[in-house]
Amino acid sequence: MSEILQPQSPGIPLPVPTIYSQSYWDGCQVGELRFQRCQDCGAITMDPAPACSACFSENLEWEVSTGLGEVYSWTTVWRPQTPAFTVPYVAVIVTLDEGFWLLANIINCPVDAVHVGMRVKTTFVELSDEITLPYFEPVE
Amino acid sequence: MAKHPFHDVAIVGIANSEQARVLEGHDSTTITFQAVHRVLADTGLTPWDIDGVAAGPFSGPLTYYMRNGPAWRSHMAPSIPIILDAASAIATGQCHTVLVAHGSAGIYTERASTAPWTRPANEFVVAYGMFTAAEFALIAQRHMHMHGTTHEQLATVAATIRNNGHAHPEAVYHGRGPFTPDDILASRMVSDPFHLLDCAMTSEGACALILTTRERAQDLPNKPVYILGGACDSFGPSYQHPPAWDLAGPSGRNNGYTGRWAAQKSFAMGELGPTDVDVCEFYDPFSFEIIRQFEAYGFCEEGEGGDFIMDGRIGPGGQFPVTTDGGTMSFSHGGAAVQQLQRVIRGVEQLRGTCVSSQVPDAQVAMCSNGGAGALFTDVMLLGTETP
């Protein structure tokens, strides 16, 4: 039985939101994975951006994702970026069911179980008063 | 009349400074100046023969201390884009002789962390422990999933390039081999699928080149090496967004094959194709990147890169020798940019026929590259001893 992946502890470098990403991070604090949808063409833009990545319209509105998706690619990291990170950790790109990608870490999962196509859902971990991070965990 | 403006430009000078894991007594400026002195010696030119400087942060200091102003100055990143910028400035008559240089020393001191240039902070990746190895691993894993590319194929690339460095007397890791693919697979895992020896190392060093007009090149001591073509592909900023293989817009071209558009344009400029290339001085930040580039540039079909690099095809005496000085895995990896310029320097050495190791006999065409899909960009240059 391999090690169960855990979230990182406070002390890791944390995101600094921008004017156009603040709603995304606000959503994480209330357990919502938010994304932007273009009101002109209907496309999703993610990561948060000042304009639609399909038609470049500025007419974007926030929606809340189901948080469900599948692993698109993954890597188990054994040499930490800085000593603030505890290894192993697994970075994943997840394709959310709505059709956008998110990069995060996967937790609550054996380290050797992660694979492309694995079904996952978001889970949130508070790292500071300002930042709650989305992670992914396996869906049973 | 040249068939492409780049063909009127030649690389007439090349130099590497000393390269080492740590260069005691140097900082980035002093080691860059060492490379500049060496490239002037290589060409017999003086600072006052230079009327353009393309050296990233060192452009200003070099012009000031050489007193070669007023000089044309590039503002591009000091890698293939800056060489193409210099070539464009020469071809359009803005200047006639450009010094390209870059160096790095004393930057990477906190060895408990990965090198500072590998981990830029961006809000969507910073908290997930990302650095270049992990970014490129996400690209490689996707390819392995789609096409069944194996760890052994990756290890074959790494062993080939590291053996080139093993044989090169000026490589930082000279004499460290020879390596078999099993040696690569036995090294500790850094970021799956990359073992330690699948990854670039870190070191310090500088390098420099001098470009001038075809006409002026005829009066200089070295065999001119011409720019047959060159172009740069970008899909966005490096290390800020998920490095997805399938990242694409309406063009249909995807990030997994970043560099393909640049290669197609470069081949068209030079009236060449992949089978005309004698030596592949491909950028080697991670072993998988070599496999990806053979597919991206059209040397083989999509998904066949893993098989393509086997059976000695990319080694000494093979059809497409790669990264013949040992590249970033073994020759040197001075930082964010110097090692990218060194791919072009090695291509020039190959076409001059002056390599002290792993010389490809009678090499006429070299393909050089920078970047990689994990960083959302790839730059390409084609060099030749003759122009079409």
Radius of gyration of chain A: 15 Å
Average pLDDT level of chain A: 96
Largest sheet, strands/sense/barrel of chain A: 5 strands, antiparallel
Structural class of chain A: mainly beta
Total of helices of chain A: 1
Give structural notes:
The complex is a heterodimer of chains A (140) and B (388). With 140 residues, chain A is mainly β. Chain A folds into two domains: 49 residues, no CATH class; 75 residues, OB fold (Dihydrolipoamide Acetyltransferase, E2P) (Beta Barrel), CATH 2.40.50. Chain A has one helix and eight strands, in the order αββββββββ. Chain A has a five-stranded antiparallel sheet with strand order 6-5-4-7-8. In chain A, strands 2-1-3 form a three-stranded antiparallel sheet. Chain A is globular and about 50 Å long. Chain B is of the alpha/beta class and 388 residues long. Helix content of chain B is 31%, strand content 16%. Chain B contains twelve helices and eleven strands. In chain B, the strands form two sheets. Chain B has a nine-stranded mixed sheet with strand order 3-2-4-7-1-8-11-10-9, sandwiched between helices. The longest helix of chain B has 16 residues. The N and C termini of chain B lie close together (11 Å). Chains A and B meet through strand 4, strand 5 and strand 6 of A and helix 4 and strand 5 of B.
Key traits:
heterodimer; A: 140 residues; mainly beta; OB fold (Dihydrolipoamide Acetyltransferase, E2P); five-stranded antiparallel beta sheet; three-stranded antiparallel beta sheet; 1 helix; B: 388 residues; alpha/beta; two-stranded antiparallel sheet; 16% strand
